[in-house]
Amino acid sequence: MPHVQPVITRASTSLADARTRALQLYRTWQKGVPKYMIDYHLCMPQSVVRAKIREEFEKNRFVSDPRAIDVLLLKGRMEYEETYNVWKQYSHVLRYFDSNEGAAEPAGFVDRFIEGRA
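Given the sequence above, the corresponding structure tokens read:
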């Protein structure tokens, strides 16, 4: 049975401390990629998984409030623990790789009518 250290909730003492903890979490995620590939039977190259992990971290790159960073670190650590211990289903993991993520819905007749294009 896989074992991950329990999530420790502690506040970062400074922005530098929060940055160090974020890098540590990032490295932990990256080191686990081969295990995720096996456990979830992912049919994609490791580089794609690693790029997606990086993209998820890059979304919050410019957060500068240490308390907000601590919340993000806690959520990231919980997500890691769920993934590492295979508490997620295959579909939950694949949801991160959905190509329609963020794509706008095609405008229907009513939407175009309201905008004055129909």
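The chain has a mean pLDDT of 86. Try to locate this feature in the token string yourself.
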